[in-house]
Amino acid sequence: MPIKPIIKRLLILRYKYISQKNFVFLLAMLIGLLSGLVSVTIKNITYAIQWGLEHLVIVSANSIYFILPVIGLWLVYLFVKYVSKQHIEFAIPSILFSLSKKNGFLKRSKIYLPLITAPITAGFGGSVGLLGPAIASASAVSSYVGQLFHVDRKTRTLLIGCAAAGAISSIFQSPIAAIIFAVEVFSLDLTFASLLPLLIASVSSVLTSYFFVGNGVLFNYNITTPFALKDTLFLIVLGIGTGIASIYFTKIYFAVYKFFERFKTSGQKLIVGGLAIGVMLYFIPPLYGEGFGFINDLLGGNHLHALGKTPFDDYLDNIWVVIALLFGITIFKAIAMTTTFAAGGAGGIFIPTMVMGSALGNVMAKIINNIGLGFQVSETNFTLLGMAGLIAGVLHAPLTAIFLIAEITGGYQLFVPLMITVSMSFIIKKSAIDHTIYTKELAEKGELLTHDKDQSVLTLMKLDSVIEKDFTVLKPEMSLGKMLHQGVAKSSRNLFPVVDENQYLVGIILLDDIRTVMFDQALYETTSVETFMHNPPDYIYYESDSMKEVMRKFQDSGAWNLPVIKKGNYHGFVSKSKLLTAYRRELINFTS
Protein backbone atom coordinates (compact mmCIF):
# COMPACT_ATOMS: atom_id res chain seq x y z
CA MET A 1 0.00 0.00 0.00
CA PRO A 2 1.43 3.44 -0.94
CA ILE A 3 2.74 5.43 2.01
CA LYS A 4 1.19 8.80 1.08
CA PRO A 5 -2.45 7.77 1.65
CA ILE A 6 -1.45 6.33 5.03
CA ILE A 7 0.31 9.53 6.00
CA LYS A 8 -2.68 11.55 4.84
CA ARG A 9 -5.02 9.54 7.09
CA LEU A 10 -2.63 9.89 10.00
CA LEU A 11 -2.49 13.65 9.49
CA ILE A 12 -6.28 13.86 9.49
CA LEU A 13 -6.43 11.89 12.75
CA ARG A 14 -3.65 14.01 14.18
CA TYR A 15 -5.45 17.30 13.48
CA LYS A 16 -8.68 15.92 14.92
CA TYR A 17 -7.49 14.22 18.08
CA ILE A 18 -3.84 15.04 18.90
CA SER A 19 -2.51 18.37 20.13
CA GLN A 20 0.69 19.83 18.70
CA LYS A 21 2.61 19.16 21.92
CA ASN A 22 1.58 15.50 22.11
CA PHE A 23 2.23 15.08 18.41
CA VAL A 24 5.82 16.26 18.90
CA PHE A 25 6.20 13.77 21.76
CA LEU A 26 5.00 10.93 19.51
CA LEU A 27 7.37 11.99 16.73
CA ALA A 28 10.24 12.14 19.23
CA MET A 29 9.48 8.59 20.31
CA LEU A 30 9.39 7.46 16.67
CA ILE A 31 12.67 9.24 15.90
CA GLY A 32 14.28 7.66 18.95
CA LEU A 33 13.19 4.21 17.80
CA LEU A 34 14.47 4.80 14.27
CA SER A 35 17.75 6.29 15.55
CA GLY A 36 18.27 3.19 17.67
CA LEU A 37 17.67 0.99 14.65
CA VAL A 38 20.13 3.04 12.59
CA SER A 39 22.81 2.80 15.28
CA VAL A 40 22.32 -0.94 15.73
CA THR A 41 22.41 -1.43 11.95
CA ILE A 42 25.61 0.54 11.38
CA LYS A 43 27.37 -1.24 14.26
CA ASN A 44 26.25 -4.70 13.17
CA ILE A 45 27.30 -4.14 9.54
CA THR A 46 30.71 -2.99 10.75
CA TYR A 47 31.11 -5.91 13.13
CA ALA A 48 30.04 -8.33 10.38
CA ILE A 49 32.76 -6.98 8.10
CA GLN A 50 35.32 -7.21 10.89
CA TRP A 51 34.23 -10.77 11.77
CA GLY A 52 34.56 -11.84 8.16
CA LEU A 53 38.02 -10.34 7.86
CA GLU A 54 39.19 -11.90 11.13
CA HIS A 55 38.01 -15.37 10.17
CA LEU A 56 38.73 -15.31 6.46
CA VAL A 57 41.79 -13.07 6.10
CA ILE A 58 43.64 -13.68 9.38
CA VAL A 59 43.77 -10.02 10.41
CA SER A 60 46.14 -10.75 13.25
CA ALA A 61 48.99 -11.28 10.83
CA ASN A 62 51.05 -8.09 10.71
CA SER A 63 51.80 -8.62 7.04
CA ILE A 64 48.13 -8.37 6.15
CA TYR A 65 46.10 -6.32 8.60
CA PHE A 66 47.67 -2.92 7.90
CA ILE A 67 46.81 -3.30 4.21
CA LEU A 68 43.08 -3.75 4.91
CA PRO A 69 42.31 -0.02 5.49
CA VAL A 70 43.69 0.69 2.02
CA ILE A 71 41.35 -1.93 0.55
CA GLY A 72 38.48 -0.34 2.46
CA LEU A 73 39.33 3.09 1.06
CA TRP A 74 39.40 1.64 -2.47
CA LEU A 75 35.97 0.08 -1.97
CA VAL A 76 34.55 3.37 -0.71
CA TYR A 77 36.17 5.18 -3.64
CA LEU A 78 34.62 2.78 -6.16
CA PHE A 79 31.22 3.01 -4.47
CA VAL A 80 31.26 6.81 -4.49
CA LYS A 81 32.50 7.07 -8.07
CA TYR A 82 30.34 4.45 -9.77
CA VAL A 83 27.32 3.84 -7.53
CA SER A 84 26.31 6.76 -5.33
CA LYS A 85 28.06 9.44 -7.44
CA GLN A 86 27.82 11.80 -4.45
CA HIS A 87 30.72 13.24 -2.53
CA ILE A 88 31.08 12.11 1.06
CA GLU A 89 30.03 14.90 3.41
CA PHE A 90 31.07 15.15 7.02
CA ALA A 91 28.17 14.32 9.27
CA ILE A 92 27.85 17.05 11.88
CA PRO A 93 28.96 20.04 9.72
CA SER A 94 26.53 19.06 6.95
CA ILE A 95 23.69 18.78 9.48
CA LEU A 96 24.55 22.15 11.04
CA PHE A 97 24.58 23.71 7.57
CA SER A 98 21.18 22.24 6.75
CA LEU A 99 19.77 23.67 9.98
CA SER A 100 21.05 27.17 9.27
CA LYS A 101 20.59 27.44 5.51
CA LYS A 102 18.23 24.65 4.36
CA ASN A 103 15.55 24.78 7.07
CA GLY A 104 16.58 21.35 8.33
CA PHE A 105 16.00 19.55 5.04
CA LEU A 106 18.44 16.71 4.38
CA LYS A 107 18.72 14.57 1.26
CA ARG A 108 17.09 11.15 1.48
CA SER A 109 20.28 9.62 0.12
CA LYS A 110 21.95 10.52 3.42
CA ILE A 111 19.79 7.91 5.10
CA TYR A 112 21.60 5.00 3.49
CA LEU A 113 24.96 6.35 2.28
CA PRO A 114 26.54 6.52 5.78
CA LEU A 115 25.28 2.98 6.43
CA ILE A 116 27.45 1.78 3.55
CA THR A 117 30.56 3.98 3.43
CA ALA A 118 31.24 4.21 7.18
CA PRO A 119 31.05 0.45 7.93
CA ILE A 120 33.34 -0.28 4.98
CA THR A 121 35.86 2.32 6.17
CA ALA A 122 35.77 1.31 9.86
CA GLY A 123 35.20 -2.41 9.20
CA PHE A 124 38.39 -2.62 7.17
CA GLY A 125 40.29 -0.90 9.97
CA GLY A 126 40.03 2.78 9.03
CA SER A 127 40.96 4.90 12.05
CA VAL A 128 37.51 6.51 12.36
CA GLY A 129 34.39 6.29 14.51
CA LEU A 130 30.81 5.34 13.71
CA LEU A 131 28.97 7.90 15.82
CA GLY A 132 29.07 10.71 13.24
CA PRO A 133 27.69 8.56 10.40
CA ALA A 134 25.01 7.16 12.74
CA ILE A 135 23.94 10.70 13.61
CA ALA A 136 23.97 11.67 9.92
CA SER A 137 21.76 8.75 8.90
CA ALA A 138 19.39 9.19 11.86
CA SER A 139 19.13 12.94 11.19
CA ALA A 140 18.26 12.29 7.54
CA VAL A 141 15.57 9.88 8.73
CA SER A 142 14.16 12.52 11.08
CA SER A 143 14.20 15.14 8.31
CA TYR A 144 12.24 12.77 6.04
CA VAL A 145 9.73 12.01 8.79
CA GLY A 146 9.34 15.73 9.40
CA GLN A 147 8.60 16.29 5.71
CA LEU A 148 6.04 13.47 5.66
CA PHE A 149 4.15 14.99 8.59
CA HIS A 150 4.51 18.60 7.40
CA VAL A 151 6.16 19.93 10.55
CA ASP A 152 7.57 23.45 10.68
CA ARG A 153 11.25 24.37 10.68
CA LYS A 154 11.53 24.67 14.45
CA THR A 155 10.02 21.22 15.02
CA ARG A 156 12.21 19.78 12.25
CA THR A 157 15.28 21.18 14.04
CA LEU A 158 14.14 19.63 17.31
CA LEU A 159 13.61 16.26 15.63
CA ILE A 160 17.14 16.35 14.24
CA GLY A 161 18.36 17.02 17.76
CA CYS A 162 16.29 14.02 18.88
CA ALA A 163 17.96 11.90 16.20
CA ALA A 164 21.44 12.91 17.40
CA ALA A 165 20.51 12.23 21.01
CA GLY A 166 19.05 8.86 20.02
CA ALA A 167 22.18 7.80 18.13
CA ILE A 168 24.48 8.65 21.03
CA SER A 169 22.15 7.10 23.57
CA SER A 170 22.04 3.88 21.58
CA ILE A 171 25.80 3.60 20.96
CA PHE A 172 27.01 4.60 24.43
CA GLN A 173 23.85 3.69 26.36
CA SER A 174 24.09 7.06 28.07
CA PRO A 175 20.77 8.91 27.64
CA ILE A 176 21.62 11.96 29.76
CA ALA A 177 24.88 12.68 27.93
CA ALA A 178 23.01 12.21 24.66
CA ILE A 179 20.53 14.95 25.55
CA ILE A 180 23.29 17.32 26.59
CA PHE A 181 25.22 16.64 23.37
CA ALA A 182 22.21 17.65 21.29
CA VAL A 183 21.87 20.87 23.28
CA GLU A 184 25.59 21.76 23.19
CA VAL A 185 26.43 20.84 19.59
CA PHE A 186 23.16 21.68 17.84
CA SER A 187 22.53 24.83 19.94
CA LEU A 188 19.04 23.76 20.98
CA ASP A 189 17.27 25.77 23.67
CA LEU A 190 17.21 23.89 26.95
CA THR A 191 13.53 24.46 27.72
CA PHE A 192 10.79 22.09 28.78
CA ALA A 193 9.45 22.17 25.22
CA SER A 194 12.73 20.76 23.89
CA LEU A 195 13.95 18.80 26.91
CA LEU A 196 11.04 16.36 27.11
CA PRO A 197 11.14 15.32 23.40
CA LEU A 198 14.92 14.85 23.67
CA LEU A 199 14.41 12.70 26.77
CA ILE A 200 11.72 10.62 25.07
CA ALA A 201 13.90 10.08 21.97
CA SER A 202 16.95 9.23 24.07
CA VAL A 203 15.13 6.69 26.23
CA SER A 204 13.30 5.03 23.33
CA SER A 205 16.58 4.74 21.43
CA VAL A 206 18.48 3.12 24.29
CA LEU A 207 15.59 0.70 24.84
CA THR A 208 15.78 -0.20 21.16
CA SER A 209 19.49 -0.88 21.59
CA TYR A 210 18.80 -3.07 24.63
CA PHE A 211 16.19 -5.02 22.67
CA PHE A 212 18.53 -5.87 19.79
CA VAL A 213 21.97 -6.15 21.41
CA GLY A 214 21.24 -6.57 25.11
CA ASN A 215 22.18 -4.34 28.01
CA GLY A 216 25.90 -5.05 28.02
CA VAL A 217 28.01 -1.98 28.71
CA LEU A 218 30.41 -0.54 26.14
CA PHE A 219 33.21 -0.08 28.64
CA ASN A 220 33.80 -2.57 31.45
CA TYR A 221 34.93 -0.49 34.39
CA ASN A 222 34.04 0.07 38.02
CA ILE A 223 35.65 2.83 40.05
CA THR A 224 37.83 1.40 42.80
CA THR A 225 39.94 4.46 43.60
CA PRO A 226 37.88 7.44 44.80
CA PHE A 227 38.90 11.07 44.38
CA ALA A 228 41.55 12.31 46.80
CA LEU A 229 42.28 15.98 47.49
CA LYS A 230 46.01 15.39 46.99
CA ASP A 231 45.34 14.59 43.31
CA THR A 232 43.98 18.08 42.55
CA LEU A 233 47.26 19.44 41.19
CA PHE A 234 47.66 16.44 38.89
CA LEU A 235 44.09 16.87 37.66
CA ILE A 236 44.84 20.48 36.77
CA VAL A 237 47.96 19.34 34.91
CA LEU A 238 45.86 16.72 33.08
CA GLY A 239 43.34 19.40 32.16
CA ILE A 240 46.11 21.59 30.78
CA GLY A 241 47.53 18.63 28.88
CA THR A 242 44.21 17.66 27.33
CA GLY A 243 43.57 21.31 26.44
CA ILE A 244 46.88 21.50 24.57
CA ALA A 245 46.15 18.12 22.96
CA SER A 246 42.76 19.45 21.83
CA ILE A 247 44.46 22.38 20.14
CA TYR A 248 46.88 19.95 18.48
CA PHE A 249 43.99 17.69 17.39
CA THR A 250 42.17 20.59 15.73
CA LYS A 251 45.24 22.09 14.07
CA ILE A 252 46.52 18.76 12.74
CA TYR A 253 43.05 18.04 11.33
CA PHE A 254 43.09 21.12 9.12
CA ALA A 255 46.82 20.79 8.36
CA VAL A 256 46.41 17.25 7.00
CA TYR A 257 43.47 18.35 4.85
CA LYS A 258 45.50 21.26 3.53
CA PHE A 259 48.32 18.84 2.68
CA PHE A 260 45.95 16.61 0.69
CA GLU A 261 44.58 19.58 -1.27
CA ARG A 262 47.75 19.54 -3.36
CA PHE A 263 46.64 16.24 -4.92
CA LYS A 264 44.20 16.95 -7.71
CA THR A 265 42.49 13.58 -8.10
CA SER A 266 40.77 11.26 -5.66
CA GLY A 267 42.99 8.41 -6.85
CA GLN A 268 46.15 10.28 -5.89
CA LYS A 269 44.74 11.09 -2.45
CA LEU A 270 43.78 7.46 -1.94
CA ILE A 271 47.24 6.11 -2.85
CA VAL A 272 49.13 8.62 -0.69
CA GLY A 273 46.67 8.32 2.19
CA GLY A 274 46.57 4.53 1.99
CA LEU A 275 50.36 4.23 2.11
CA ALA A 276 50.57 6.66 5.03
CA ILE A 277 47.91 4.75 6.99
CA GLY A 278 49.64 1.44 6.28
CA VAL A 279 52.97 2.71 7.63
CA MET A 280 51.34 4.14 10.77
CA LEU A 281 49.45 0.91 11.44
CA TYR A 282 52.58 -1.20 11.02
CA PHE A 283 54.40 0.66 13.77
CA ILE A 284 51.34 1.51 15.94
CA PRO A 285 48.72 -1.29 15.57
CA PRO A 286 46.17 0.25 18.04
CA LEU A 287 45.43 2.90 15.42
CA TYR A 288 43.55 0.16 13.55
CA GLY A 289 39.75 0.59 13.60
CA GLU A 290 37.58 2.49 16.06
CA GLY A 291 39.58 1.74 19.18
CA PHE A 292 36.98 0.58 21.72
CA GLY A 293 39.08 -2.50 22.46
CA PHE A 294 42.10 -0.29 23.10
CA ILE A 295 40.15 1.83 25.61
CA ASN A 296 38.80 -1.26 27.40
CA ASP A 297 42.31 -2.72 27.69
CA LEU A 298 43.60 0.48 29.28
CA LEU A 299 40.63 0.58 31.66
CA GLY A 300 41.41 -3.01 32.59
CA GLY A 301 45.03 -2.11 33.32
CA ASN A 302 46.33 -4.29 30.46
CA HIS A 303 48.47 -1.85 28.47
CA LEU A 304 50.46 -4.65 26.80
CA HIS A 305 47.34 -6.09 25.20
CA ALA A 306 46.21 -2.57 24.30
CA LEU A 307 49.45 -1.99 22.38
CA GLY A 308 49.17 -5.30 20.53
CA LYS A 309 52.03 -6.74 18.50
CA THR A 310 54.53 -4.04 17.54
CA PRO A 311 58.11 -3.95 16.22
CA PHE A 312 59.11 -2.89 19.75
CA ASP A 313 57.81 -5.98 21.61
CA ASP A 314 61.29 -6.87 22.91
CA TYR A 315 61.47 -3.60 24.84
CA LEU A 316 58.01 -3.54 26.46
CA ASP A 317 59.38 -4.59 29.83
CA ASN A 318 60.66 -1.01 30.06
CA ILE A 319 57.77 1.18 31.25
CA TRP A 320 59.18 4.23 29.46
CA VAL A 321 58.98 2.41 26.13
CA VAL A 322 55.33 1.67 26.92
CA ILE A 323 54.79 5.33 27.76
CA ALA A 324 56.46 6.37 24.50
CA LEU A 325 54.25 4.02 22.46
CA LEU A 326 51.09 5.22 24.20
CA PHE A 327 52.16 8.81 23.60
CA GLY A 328 52.70 7.87 19.96
CA ILE A 329 49.06 6.81 19.82
CA THR A 330 48.13 10.20 21.28
CA ILE A 331 50.09 11.94 18.54
CA PHE A 332 49.23 9.75 15.57
CA LYS A 333 45.54 8.96 16.22
CA ALA A 334 44.52 12.40 14.97
CA ILE A 335 46.83 12.06 11.96
CA ALA A 336 45.57 8.57 11.08
CA MET A 337 41.95 9.64 11.47
CA THR A 338 42.29 12.76 9.31
CA THR A 339 44.34 10.90 6.71
CA THR A 340 41.54 8.34 6.46
CA PHE A 341 39.04 11.15 5.84
CA ALA A 342 41.25 13.05 3.41
CA ALA A 343 41.97 9.85 1.44
CA GLY A 344 38.24 9.34 0.86
CA GLY A 345 37.03 7.39 3.88
CA ALA A 346 33.87 8.06 5.89
CA GLY A 347 33.43 8.18 9.65
CA GLY A 348 33.29 10.37 12.73
CA ILE A 349 35.73 12.10 15.07
CA PHE A 350 33.99 11.51 18.43
CA ILE A 351 35.35 8.03 19.15
CA PRO A 352 38.90 8.79 17.85
CA THR A 353 38.84 11.74 20.24
CA MET A 354 38.04 9.35 23.09
CA VAL A 355 40.86 6.99 22.04
CA MET A 356 43.37 9.81 21.92
CA GLY A 357 42.20 11.13 25.30
CA SER A 358 42.35 7.70 26.94
CA ALA A 359 45.94 7.23 25.76
CA LEU A 360 46.98 10.69 26.95
CA GLY A 361 45.35 10.25 30.35
CA ASN A 362 47.02 6.87 30.80
CA VAL A 363 50.39 8.30 29.76
CA MET A 364 50.18 11.13 32.28
CA ALA A 365 49.23 8.73 35.08
CA LYS A 366 52.13 6.41 34.22
CA ILE A 367 54.57 9.31 34.19
CA ILE A 368 53.35 10.49 37.61
CA ASN A 369 53.60 6.97 39.05
CA ASN A 370 57.05 6.21 37.61
CA ILE A 371 58.86 9.51 37.81
CA GLY A 372 60.34 8.50 41.14
CA LEU A 373 58.88 11.19 43.40
CA GLY A 374 56.66 8.82 45.37
CA PHE A 375 53.34 9.99 43.88
CA GLN A 376 50.64 7.48 43.00
CA VAL A 377 47.42 8.07 41.01
CA SER A 378 44.85 5.74 39.45
CA GLU A 379 45.80 5.02 35.85
CA THR A 380 42.28 3.86 34.99
CA ASN A 381 40.72 7.00 36.46
CA PHE A 382 43.13 9.17 34.50
CA THR A 383 42.27 7.18 31.36
CA LEU A 384 38.63 8.17 31.79
CA LEU A 385 39.48 11.76 32.71
CA GLY A 386 41.70 12.05 29.63
CA MET A 387 38.77 10.99 27.44
CA ALA A 388 36.57 13.63 29.05
CA GLY A 389 39.21 16.33 28.64
CA LEU A 390 39.64 15.65 24.92
CA ILE A 391 35.88 15.54 24.30
CA ALA A 392 35.45 18.85 26.11
CA GLY A 393 38.32 20.50 24.26
CA VAL A 394 37.95 19.13 20.74
CA LEU A 395 34.16 19.29 20.55
CA HIS A 396 33.56 22.22 22.96
CA ALA A 397 31.11 19.97 24.79
CA PRO A 398 32.18 20.04 28.46
CA LEU A 399 28.85 18.93 29.94
CA THR A 400 28.60 16.07 27.45
CA ALA A 401 32.08 14.94 28.50
CA ILE A 402 31.24 15.02 32.21
CA PHE A 403 27.95 13.16 31.99
CA LEU A 404 29.17 10.66 29.40
CA ILE A 405 32.01 9.49 31.64
CA ALA A 406 29.71 9.55 34.67
CA GLU A 407 27.21 7.31 32.90
CA ILE A 408 29.93 5.02 31.55
CA THR A 409 31.25 4.46 35.07
CA GLY A 410 27.76 4.01 36.47
CA GLY A 411 28.06 6.73 39.10
CA TYR A 412 29.30 10.18 40.02
CA GLN A 413 32.36 9.30 42.12
CA LEU A 414 34.57 11.06 39.55
CA PHE A 415 32.33 14.11 39.24
CA VAL A 416 34.74 16.55 40.94
CA PRO A 417 37.82 15.31 39.03
CA LEU A 418 35.82 15.47 35.81
CA MET A 419 34.81 19.06 36.50
CA ILE A 420 38.43 20.08 37.18
CA THR A 421 39.91 18.38 34.12
CA VAL A 422 37.11 19.27 31.73
CA SER A 423 36.92 22.93 32.72
CA MET A 424 40.68 23.42 32.32
CA SER A 425 40.72 21.70 28.94
CA PHE A 426 37.72 23.62 27.65
CA ILE A 427 39.04 27.00 28.79
CA ILE A 428 42.46 26.46 27.20
CA LYS A 429 41.07 25.21 23.88
CA LYS A 430 38.32 27.84 23.70
CA SER A 431 40.83 30.61 24.41
CA ALA A 432 43.14 29.41 21.64
CA ILE A 433 40.60 28.32 18.98
CA ASP A 434 37.11 29.73 19.18
CA HIS A 435 35.46 27.08 17.00
CA THR A 436 35.57 23.31 16.68
CA ILE A 437 36.29 21.04 13.73
CA TYR A 438 32.51 20.85 13.31
CA THR A 439 31.90 24.59 13.26
CA LYS A 440 35.04 26.42 12.08
CA GLU A 441 34.26 26.63 8.36
CA LEU A 442 30.56 27.33 8.94
CA ALA A 443 31.37 30.13 11.39
CA GLU A 444 33.80 31.73 8.92
CA LYS A 445 31.02 31.78 6.31
CA GLY A 446 28.40 33.09 8.76
CA GLU A 447 26.36 29.88 8.44
CA LEU A 448 26.50 28.64 12.03
CA LEU A 449 23.64 28.57 14.51
CA THR A 450 24.70 29.26 18.11
CA HIS A 451 23.09 29.75 21.49
CA ASP A 452 23.24 33.51 20.79
CA LYS A 453 19.66 34.15 19.64
CA ASP A 454 20.48 37.38 17.79
CA GLN A 455 23.29 35.68 15.90
CA SER A 456 21.14 32.63 15.14
CA VAL A 457 18.27 34.74 13.82
CA LEU A 458 20.63 36.59 11.49
CA THR A 459 22.05 33.26 10.31
CA LEU A 460 18.58 31.93 9.54
CA MET A 461 17.60 35.02 7.57
CA LYS A 462 18.13 34.96 3.82
CA LEU A 463 19.32 37.98 1.89
CA ASP A 464 16.97 37.24 -1.02
CA SER A 465 13.95 37.76 1.25
CA VAL A 466 14.82 41.42 1.91
CA ILE A 467 16.11 42.53 -1.51
CA GLU A 468 13.81 45.02 -3.25
CA LYS A 469 13.97 45.51 -7.01
CA ASP A 470 11.16 47.99 -7.72
CA PHE A 471 13.56 50.87 -8.32
CA THR A 472 13.62 52.85 -11.53
CA VAL A 473 17.05 52.47 -13.06
CA LEU A 474 18.70 55.53 -14.63
CA LYS A 475 21.56 55.93 -17.10
CA PRO A 476 24.37 58.41 -16.42
CA GLU A 477 23.92 60.16 -19.79
CA MET A 478 20.19 60.82 -19.24
CA SER A 479 19.21 64.51 -19.21
CA LEU A 480 17.55 65.99 -16.12
CA GLY A 481 14.28 66.40 -18.02
CA LYS A 482 14.26 62.81 -19.22
CA MET A 483 15.08 61.59 -15.73
CA LEU A 484 12.15 63.54 -14.28
CA HIS A 485 9.64 62.32 -16.87
CA GLN A 486 10.79 58.69 -17.17
CA GLY A 487 12.09 58.19 -13.66
CA VAL A 488 10.76 60.43 -10.91
CA ALA A 489 7.26 60.81 -12.34
CA LYS A 490 6.76 57.04 -12.69
CA SER A 491 8.42 55.86 -9.48
CA SER A 492 7.08 55.62 -5.97
CA ARG A 493 10.61 55.56 -4.52
CA ASN A 494 12.84 58.46 -3.62
CA LEU A 495 16.01 56.62 -4.58
CA PHE A 496 17.32 55.90 -8.07
CA PRO A 497 20.24 53.59 -9.01
CA VAL A 498 22.42 54.73 -11.90
CA VAL A 499 23.95 51.93 -14.03
CA ASP A 500 26.02 51.92 -17.20
CA GLU A 501 25.54 49.79 -20.30
CA ASN A 502 27.09 46.78 -18.52
CA GLN A 503 24.65 47.02 -15.58
CA TYR A 504 27.48 48.18 -13.33
CA LEU A 505 26.29 50.50 -10.56
CA VAL A 506 28.07 53.83 -11.08
CA GLY A 507 26.13 55.84 -8.49
CA ILE A 508 22.79 56.69 -6.91
CA ILE A 509 20.53 59.72 -6.83
CA LEU A 510 18.22 60.68 -3.98
CA LEU A 511 15.17 62.82 -4.54
CA ASP A 512 16.73 65.34 -2.14
CA ASP A 513 19.70 65.65 -4.51
CA ILE A 514 17.54 67.20 -7.25
CA ARG A 515 14.74 68.78 -5.20
CA THR A 516 16.10 72.33 -5.58
CA VAL A 517 16.55 72.09 -9.37
CA MET A 518 13.78 69.78 -10.50
CA PHE A 519 11.50 72.66 -11.50
CA ASP A 520 14.19 74.69 -13.25
CA GLN A 521 13.36 73.90 -16.88
CA ALA A 522 16.48 75.68 -18.09
CA LEU A 523 18.52 72.78 -16.72
CA TYR A 524 16.40 70.02 -18.25
CA GLU A 525 18.55 69.64 -21.37
CA THR A 526 21.84 71.11 -20.16
CA THR A 527 22.45 68.84 -17.20
CA SER A 528 22.54 65.09 -16.95
CA VAL A 529 22.09 62.38 -14.35
CA GLU A 530 25.86 62.15 -14.03
CA THR A 531 25.87 65.69 -12.60
CA PHE A 532 23.76 64.75 -9.58
CA MET A 533 24.73 61.13 -8.85
CA HIS A 534 27.07 60.15 -6.01
CA ASN A 535 28.40 56.99 -4.45
CA PRO A 536 26.23 55.06 -1.96
CA PRO A 537 27.40 54.96 1.70
CA ASP A 538 28.30 51.27 1.32
CA TYR A 539 27.62 48.19 -0.78
CA ILE A 540 26.14 44.78 0.02
CA TYR A 541 27.87 41.97 -1.85
CA TYR A 542 25.42 39.15 -2.57
CA GLU A 543 27.95 36.32 -2.74
CA SER A 544 30.00 37.11 0.34
CA ASP A 545 28.12 39.26 2.86
CA SER A 546 26.30 37.46 5.67
CA MET A 547 23.24 38.98 7.29
CA LYS A 548 25.39 39.92 10.27
CA GLU A 549 27.69 41.84 7.94
CA VAL A 550 24.68 43.50 6.30
CA MET A 551 23.42 44.66 9.71
CA ARG A 552 26.87 46.02 10.53
CA LYS A 553 27.04 47.97 7.30
CA PHE A 554 23.70 49.63 8.01
CA GLN A 555 24.84 50.49 11.52
CA ASP A 556 28.20 51.90 10.44
CA SER A 557 26.93 53.84 7.42
CA GLY A 558 23.71 55.19 8.94
CA ALA A 559 22.02 54.59 5.57
CA TRP A 560 18.36 53.70 5.08
CA ASN A 561 19.01 51.86 1.81
CA LEU A 562 22.08 50.05 0.52
CA PRO A 563 22.59 48.64 -2.99
CA VAL A 564 23.16 44.93 -3.58
CA ILE A 565 25.93 43.90 -5.97
CA LYS A 566 25.69 40.42 -7.50
CA LYS A 567 28.49 39.16 -9.74
CA GLY A 568 29.73 42.74 -10.05
CA ASN A 569 26.38 44.13 -11.28
CA TYR A 570 23.51 46.02 -9.70
CA HIS A 571 20.92 43.61 -8.25
CA GLY A 572 18.58 45.72 -6.10
CA PHE A 573 18.44 47.44 -2.72
CA VAL A 574 17.98 46.42 0.91
CA SER A 575 16.12 48.90 3.10
CA LYS A 576 16.75 49.16 6.83
CA SER A 577 13.01 49.14 7.59
CA LYS A 578 12.38 45.90 5.67
CA LEU A 579 15.49 44.32 7.17
CA LEU A 580 14.41 45.11 10.74
CA THR A 581 10.86 43.95 10.05
CA ALA A 582 12.16 40.63 8.71
CA TYR A 583 14.47 40.34 11.71
CA ARG A 584 11.63 40.88 14.20
CA ARG A 585 9.44 38.35 12.40
CA GLU A 586 12.24 35.74 12.38
CA LEU A 587 12.99 36.39 16.05
CA ILE A 588 9.35 35.77 16.98
CA ASN A 589 9.32 32.52 14.99
CA PHE A 590 12.64 31.42 16.50
CA THR A 591 11.71 32.02 20.13
CA SER A 592 8.01 31.10 20.10
From TrEMBL:
What residues does the CBS domain cover?
467-525, 533-592
The protein's matches in InterPro entries, at most eight in alphabetical order, are given as: CBS_dom, CBS_dom_sf, Cl-channel_core, ClC, ClC-type_chloride_channel
Q: CDD domains recorded for this chain?
A: CBS_pair_SF (cd02205), Voltage_gated_ClC (cd00400)
Q: What main location does UniProt list?
A: membrane
Q: Which SUPFAM superfamilies match?
A: CBS-domain pair (SSF54631), Clc chloride channel (SSF81340)
How does this protein sit in the membrane? Multi-pass membrane protein
Location within or outside the cell: Membrane
Q: Name one Pfam family in it.
A: Voltage_CLC
Q: Which domain of life is it from?
A: Bacteria
Query: Which residues are listed as membrane-spanning?
Result: 23-42, 62-80, 111-138, 158-183, 190-213, 233-257, 269-288, 319-336, 343-364, 384-405, 412-428
Sorted UniProt keywords: CBS domain, Chloride, Chloride channel, Ion channel, Ion transport, Membrane, Transmembrane, Transmembrane helix, Transport
Annotated protein name in UniProt: Chloride channel protein
Originating species: Psychroserpens luteus
Instruction: Cite the source lineage.
Output: Bacteria, Pseudomonadati, Bacteroidota, Flavobacteriia, Flavobacteriales
